[in-house]
């Protein structure tokens, strides 16, 4: 073989090998890389629950949002309502059931939910700052339930009843405004909190007709959300929130289908509602702009050993002004879907937005048959296929620069000894391409 022929052969071989590697890499989900989160392990309190000692730590991973335009990766996270133990789950923690019914034990009833500012330096996560949620008059918010019709009963560490709180929130998700400040979604109402850059809650948006449950609140209450939201399944309220790049569009998701008309319907439904809210130039609520359906996957796709009611939408992250990423989990299974709302049916002002509609939207299996186009859903990431495994109880997720997903876990305040974890997952070439294509409505 001549030198020229050998050179051509080597060149073609190199190109073939490179293309083969690219094809193989494009078809493989990227591996998960754990981050150094030693700074996130913050002690909270040592308490005793009915004689059982607990060593609690801060759980700052209920929600996560990347702050755009920062020189180094900066994120904001949020705690939930604080350490809590459902009575029907107390036996798994303490060896015997301590209380009955839908009551919940709050070992630290004075806990105030907080926002945390985190920075990523290489593989290390640092805590830069934190703010407790409070009213403008400095009244601290609590994690105790408001006096809602369908609410859990709160107990202290001695199993004595606690009063409801009109300033109680179960914060689960956070979105960051470029101009400063936040939107936070919570599960009780469910409701939305407009928060300034210092953690002061300027306004609380609640479902129409539920405002009486917040009588005496130190925070201004505005009943502008759809009244059907009160049908949210207990402890399955707002769980994900995403602010579009235009800063004028807010997407908010429920964790699960409504109990509409009842809890039995919820157990078998796959229809999760996602709201679209228009904001003004200051980032404040302007009007409801849409209400869509995300038909979550069958539980067999995520966790064959679980039931359909265990499938939860745990986080949203915006891709562009009409598409978001939605994190869905059940048991040890976790998947991320690209949702496009460009041609999805809006339920605002339709019969599907009314409680008296029978059968309800939650009872529908074939949405096309009843004239509803759900959000178009495309699988982007499946933790079961990746090179690395994600930790359990991932609750927060944020898309960074359209190329990387960052996840954070909820450690449940260390009740079982868990620690907060963060994981970075680079998206594969196919996923990145799908995100870019979604910028054009289809």
TrEMBL record:
InterPro entries: Phytase-like_dom (IPR027372). Residues 60-413 form the Phytase-like domain. PANTHER family: BLR7070 PROTEIN, PHYTASE-LIKE DOMAIN-CONTAINING PROTEIN. This is Phytase-like domain-containing protein.
């Amino acid at each position: 073989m001549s030198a020229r022929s050998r050179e051509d052969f080597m060149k073609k071989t190199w190109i073939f090998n490179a293309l083969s590697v690219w094809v193989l890499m494009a078809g493989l989900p990227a591996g998960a890389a754990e981050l150094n989160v030693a700074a996130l392990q913050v002690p909270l309190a040592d308490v005793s629950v009915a004689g059982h000692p607990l060593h609690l730590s801060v759980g700052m991973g209920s929600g996560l949002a990347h702050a755009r335009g920062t020189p180094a990766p900066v994120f904001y996270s949020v705690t939930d309502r604080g350490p809590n133990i459902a009575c029907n789950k107390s036996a798994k923690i303490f060896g015997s059931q301590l209380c009955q019914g839908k009551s919940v034990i709050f070992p630290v009833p004075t806990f105030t939910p907080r926002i945390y500012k985190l920075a990523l330096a290489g593989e290390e996560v640092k805590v830069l700052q934190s703010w407790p949620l409070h009213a403008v008059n400095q009244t601290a918010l609590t994690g105790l339930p408001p006096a809602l019709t369908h609410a859990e009963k709160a107990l202290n560490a001695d199993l004595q009843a606690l009063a409801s709180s009109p300033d109680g929130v179960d914060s689960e998700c956070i979105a960051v405004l470029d101009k400063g400040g936040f939107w936070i979604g919570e599960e009780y109402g469910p409701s939305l909190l407009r928060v300034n850059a210092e953690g002061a809650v300027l306004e609380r948006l609640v479902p129409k007709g539920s405002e009486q449950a917040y009588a005496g609140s130190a925070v201004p209450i505005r009943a502008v959300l759809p009244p059907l939201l009160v049908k949210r399944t207990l402890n399955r309220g707002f769980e994900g929130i995403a602010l579009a790049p235009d800063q004028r569009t807010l997407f908010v998701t429920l964790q699960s289908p409504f109990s509409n008309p009842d809890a039995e319907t919820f157990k078998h439904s796959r229809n999760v509602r996602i709201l679209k809210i228009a904001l003004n130039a200051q980032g404040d609520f302007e009007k409801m702009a849409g209400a869509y359906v995300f038909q979550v996957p069958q539980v067999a796709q995520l966790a064959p050993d679980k039931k359909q009611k265990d499938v939860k939408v745990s986080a949203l992250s915006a891709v562009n002004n009409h598409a978001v990423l939605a994190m869905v989990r059940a048991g040890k299974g976790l998947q991320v879907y690209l949702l496009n709302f460009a041609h999805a049916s809006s339920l605002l002002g339709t019969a599907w937005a009314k409680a008296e509609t029978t059968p309800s939207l939650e009872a529908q299996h074939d949405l096309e048959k009843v004239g509803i186009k759900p959000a178009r859903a495309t699988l982007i990431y499946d933790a079961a296929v990746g090179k690395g495994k994600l930790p359990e109880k991932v609750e927060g997720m944020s898309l960074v620069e359209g190329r990387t997903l960052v996840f954070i876990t909820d450690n449940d305040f260390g009740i079982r000894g868990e620690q907060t974890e963060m994981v970075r997952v680079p998206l594969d070439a196919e996923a990145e391409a799908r995100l870019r294509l979604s910028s054009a409505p289809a």
